[in-house]
Request: fold
Amino acid sequence: TPRPALKYFHGLPLIKYFAENFEEVEKFQAHPDDLLISTYPKAGTTWMSEIVDLILNDGDIEKSKRDAIFIRVPFLEFAVPGVLKGIEQLAALPPPRVIKTHLPVEFLPQSFWDKNCKMIYVARNAKDVAVSYYHFYQMAKVHPDPGTWKQFLKKYMDGDVSFGSWYNHVKGWWEKKKDYRILYLFYEDMKENPKREIQKVMKFMEKDLGEEVLERIVRRTSFQVMKENDMANYGTIPTSVMDHSISPFMRKGISGDWKNYFTVAQNEEFDADYAKKMGQTSLQFRNEL
Ligand code: A3P
Reply:
């Protein structure tokens, strides 16, 4: 089956089916107890979802084994023919709900701001996201064909990929945290010291679960354990939507893989363009650990 081209919703490029459903998403009514996990795609959404879900359930591993991650943490704007939409799933779920989104800050349904919901934003450096996204485009066939790495990288730098510009996304959410309850975290920090970052999440969620549960959540959300766990890594999604034989969802889970993809020339061009796009912000990323 041919891959659908992206479709624009008020200037935002989206997976075609998501764009066609977006007017409904805009009307979504958040509950004050909803906790939102917001990310640019490939920044560590699934990892944070697993962490937050476990914290919410007091580290109850058995509960997390019963349902797949996309059931436990619905994807707000998700819409693919023949599958329950994110907003439909959420309608059936009692608060406190954990909700995931990839929307740029200006596209988040107004209700989340009105209800002053807590939000956790996870950001990952632009180069590793580009590499991860390239592989994800290949395996998740609701995206257009990414073409070659060179072709994809250009599109990514131009913001001509699903959910738009990485640069605008990370900056937009960074600015918004001045006025709302947003915990802004970094994938690189989570890699460096998962325990420390999970403690930040617990504190933000006002959960004190003790050392033993904390250690259990750290182990349970390690890359190796999540990779083996179909419930945590979309292993139960039909191959027509995600084909793990093309590229596994749990691909490498490291920082600095971009060095295996960027040529020296691509890296120089990327850095110069990055400086232009990111020059005005206090937001700092680590491209390697
Ligand atoms: P790579 O493709 O670089 O391996 P998202 O969930 O936002 O789509 O992000 C997916 C990326 O996060 C993938 O990156 C995936 O391997 C990585 N990831 C998922 N779970 C992880 C974990 N527990 N630890 C480290 N990285 C993880």
